[in-house]
Amino acid sequence: MNDSPIRVLGVSASSRRKATDSAVRYALEYAAEKHGAAVEYFTAHRKTIGFCVHCDACVRKKQGCAFKDDMEELYPKMMWANAWILGTPVYQGQISGQLKAMLDRCRALVASHPQVLRDKVGAGIAVGGDRSGGQEPTLRSIQDFYIINEMLPVGGGAFGANLGAAVWSRDKGAAGVQADEEGLAAIRRVVDMLVRVTGLVAGAGP
Ligand SMILES: Cc1cc2nc3c(=O)[nH]c(=O)nc-3n(C[C@H](O)[C@H](O)[C@H](O)COP(=O)(O)O)c2cc1C
To answer: Domains plus CATH for the chain?
Structure first.
């Protein structure tokens, strides 16, 4: 682990180690190699992450979520990072259920520390089997989560990665992602923007 002021968490919200895993790990490798960022990874692969059931124990007790499952591994990474990359497969034109469960469970983080996510910078990667399979609404949902939780959403700028990285796997897993040159370029643009804005927020920017 290096001591870079840029600490990036990449999440793959797929239960498989295929397309989304490949896209998120590509983003983290690029962040580390090009920008010297410190990186952490979390995958939903073989993880148990239950739904928020709105028991409100987190709001009453302010000691985190009552459920003890694999979110226990993710929560510290979320708090450590000042830059998040949420990567998800597109399911029915939207984020995966795995990602929705993770995001809903963040209510418990905010319940005990209301500003714990404030000013963290966030970006999204949406990996669809179709070229126009709903990547953009999926990215918007990720951006909405950031806005709601006082984070700073970024895309990758105009001409290639407007709302985030839209990746086309052609349902061919990691090989499909690695063949999607435009998708990979979008990921690099998103990481560049994420690192630049995180540096500004951290006071380490140009
Ligand atoms: C339940 C389900 C719904 C899906 N819905 C869509 C969709 O709406 N649009 C799309 O482009 N691909 C859709 N796909 C295909 C996946 O998004 C695509 O294969 C993706 O690359 C899988 O990522 P993974 O290999 O990381 O699991 C769906 C797949 C599943 C299992």
So the answer is: 7-202 (3.40.50.360)
